[in-house]
Amino acid sequence: MHMPAGEHPELPTLVGRDRERALLHEALAQARRGCGGTIFLVGGDGMGKSRLTLEATHQGRRSGMGVLLGRAGSTFRAVALRPLTEALALLFRTEPILEHASLRPYRSALGDLIPEYRSAETAATAPPPVLLAEAVLRLLSVTGTGRGCLLALEDLHDTDPATLAVVEYLADNIADQGTLLLATLRPELGPAWDLAQALGRRCSGTILRLEPLGRRAVHLLAASRLGLEPERIPEPVLDRLCRDSAGNPFLATELLRAMRDSGTLVVESGGCRLVDEVHTEIPPTVRHSVTDQADRLGPAGRHLLTAAAVIGERFPISVLGRALRMEQDDLLGHLRAAVAAGLLAAEGHDHDWYAFRTMTTAVALLGQLTPTDQAALAYQSVDAVNELHPGLPGEWCRFTARLTQLAGDVRGAVRLLALAGRRDLNAGRLRAATETLDQAWRLAQASADSPLRADVLHELLCALVESGEARRGLRLLDNLDDLCHPAVPPERLAAVHVLFARLALLAGRRADAATQLDAARTVLGPGAHERQTAAVDAVAAAHLGPDAPERAARLAAHAVQKAERAGLPGVACLGWQVRGVLARRQGADEAQSCFARMNRLAERHHLPLWRNRAAVLLAEQRWLLTGDTDALLRATERARRTGASAVRHAVDVRLAWDHALRAEYTEAERLVQESAAEAHRLGLGDSAPLLALVRAVCAGHRGRRHELDAVLAGLADDGECQPFAALAHGMAAAVCALLEEDPGRARRELDRAAAYDAERPAPYPLTGHQGLGLLLGVLDGDADWRRCCEVGAAPAGRLHWNRQFVLLAKAVLLGRQGEREAAGATVTAVRRAQAHPVAVHLGLRLVAPAAHADRWGDPVDWLRGAEEYFCRAGLPAPARACRAHLRRLGVVVPYRRTTSRVPQPLRMIGVTEREYEVLQLMADWSDNRSIASELFISPRTVEKHVASLIAKTEQANRAALSRYAARVRDEVTPD
Of 31, 78, 216, 765, which one's alpha carbon is 20 to 30 angstroms from that of 713? Predict the structure, then answer.
């Protein structure tokens, strides 16, 4: 709602001072009732003291009070009694108040205030201060008789001692005089501030401090000044206004006006917006205000403030004092004065750090310095930091870099930023490292120092590799030509090529990675030392892995040996990572050993980023073996804290995979969508195949054949995705075929997965022949105990996904040889784990006939549980199969109405619940008799439903209706 202008449109809207206004109105009301008092409005420049005084004077006049207003001048030296003289002058001009009988004895005393009442005999001697104060008190009492009186004295900090003496007397004696004394002053050291505090302590006056406006009040202020509804002020405008004004109403108003005048803020019909490209100069009114405040601190205080502004919006007083060679007592004295004036504030609990109240103040002070002055002060500050903090530990390196640049030493600033970024990177602070090194690179680009540019680019690429920002890193490829300079060491240039190769691998651009690796080898030449080639070999092994895993493993082993001999723990960790990823194709044991070696190496050499990577890889191994995701969840939280986007992304994709296998499809699809967006933002093309695998599992495990086929086609079309195609056919397509009650197709899918795996090995041994294929083989009689033991004993057979099928196969074999209790216990173990509900219920549905034939376990209970699950999951084919098996076992199966409702598109054309059940069964091309048996209705009734469905769905015939039913099953999700 737009704020009203109030009863006095000439006054600007008063915002954020409701409490203060209410207190003033109440004090005025008390004065009208004969109860006087004293209020000191205390606040820095621009905090609204004058605006509240105007509010009080207008309210006093509206209510018929006598209103006297005076101000102490600040342009020249203080004039004795000026605010009182000014306040009483209007009264004497308009009313013959001194003719009042009670005031006649005080005419001579008031002569100092009103010259026309000064007699010749008293002109030579001033009246005693107490007499003058009593005369003013009597005058105010007469003025307020029957109506109350307001005496408002502004800028008491600039007044003279005589005025302060009168104010003190009035405050002590005004309580029963029907007069409100309202005085404004700044909270700065001086007699006026001392008096206000003294009167407050003895309850003769109330100090009303004006605090900075809060965000809500600044919001309303902006809306009022722009003539807009508050909701039309966008957050970026409000953010900038709050930041630059720090809640100071004057600053906020002036900055808002300057932003509008400069075009930074565009006010349009119904709203406003920021134009970031347009720079807003600090308004002259603000500059003048800051200058005036600084001047009041004296030359030394002003110099201290300008030096502090050079150091920064936040600054350590130890550095400031050392730079100015100022004694501690003098330094602290000036700081206290600046804090009291509202220019500075202490920073938290650290006694060494102070900050400007507003960034605007610091910028305004800097604007008064010449570039030469700024450089000189910056140079002094750099020397001070180096003296106080040798070696520039911690944040002092970054802190000094800015001052070094301001002093004109750009190369020195670049070196310091690169050092700070390298320290952040080594400590695992990726966000800080990337930001700092990016800043160093922008500065270095303007330098003709090629070796320096190469060093900075190398450090920046290291940070981008670790944070996973592949797209951002590969944009820097164009800078390679500029680094081909004789002064750049070949080892450094080769290292840059290797980092570009790692970024290309992250982006899924394997051809570009090969080009960069070839360039690195060319730069190093044939006689390169193993210290120089270790990283090339490690990255080359990662590049070769999908095509030539055995050769890649040998190359990774050589890289580890070279790195360990050369004392390169980071490169050795990379080599162990590649070795572990390659070993994972065969199972868990060797991979676990490699990742453990990597972790120990990272811990021994204090490499937090490599330790995090090792933790993620070990957590993934734990998940593959046990299905436990706790370690993965801890890893993603750690990656989020450190800014390791690539690591966090990799963990999120694997968590999506886990959710898909657990039939938690909504969460899986959410993570897939978020991960795909993150991969696009970062340029992480290497995760696309795994994301496609998760989509395939989500589709296949829900029996959505059309969705699954689309994902499989995408994997087949991309040669780089072929290893994941093996996983998709084994984990998704084969399961989907079994959910369609098509075991022949399931075997063909497993054969296809094996063929893909033989051509280009899958990254995980989860292609089916290590688990599901074994179970189908045992059920068909194609696999015996020897084969079961081989698969079960292999590392791949112990993986969580595979192990459930291996155990079910073992149970079938145990039952065949008469070990019924052992067989039943084995199935119970699988059911108890229940990590992958689709796989478990599908497995129970598959082994139930064998259990019944060999008289072990509880096939009836298994089939009932599986039928219940499949019905709830919207998988009609396996649910029907379970019911059919139950009937063959002699179990009476009651009619089950499908738990899913008719999809909304079908409801719109009038399809009933029973017709939808018939349509679901027609998706499998069932005849009328089969459908009738399934639904416990007559074939004639089925025929009527079919005819109705053909008419409602506008299909040509029964065959067309069956094809339509298959599409509905795969594509339409019940709502």
Answer: 765
Place of tokens 């051809």: 511
913: amino acid identity, one letter: E
**Longest CA span, the chain:** 137
Number of Cβ within 10 Å of residue 229's Cβ equals 13
Backbone angles phi, psi at 285, to 5 degrees: -60, -40
Alpha helices in 202-357 (DSSP H): 215-226, 235-245, 249-262, 284-295, 298-311, 317-324, 328-340
The total number of structural domains that make up the chain = 6
Residue numbers of the domain that contains 820:
770-891
| Distance from C-alpha of 513 to C-alpha of 522, rounded to nearest angstrom | 14
Please indicate, yes or no, if residue 603 is contained in any of the structural domains.
yes
Closest CA to 249 of 225, 229, 266: 225
Q: Which residue has the tokens 């005496």?
A: 151
State how beta strands 271-274 and 265-268 pair. antiparallel
Rounded to whole angstroms, the Cα distance separating 481 from 493 reads: 11
Same domain, yes or no, for 806 and 669?
Answer: no
Distance of CA 699 to the CA centre of its chain: 32
Q: Are residues 109 and 233 in the same domain?
A: no
Spatial separation of the C-alpha atoms in residues 183 and 153, rounded to whole Å? 5
Where the chain has pLDDT below 70, the residues are 1-12, 73-78, 93-101, 104, 108, 111, 115-126, 277-278, 719, 834, 894-901, 904, 907-908, 936, 972-975
- The reported pTM is 0.74
The pLDDT tens digits for 78-89 are 678 889 988 888
Those residues with Cβ within 8 angstroms of residue 580's Cβ, 6 or more apart along the chain or in another chain: 590, 591, 592, 593, 594, 595, 598, 617
The number of beta carbons lying within 10 Å of the beta carbon of residue 80 is 14
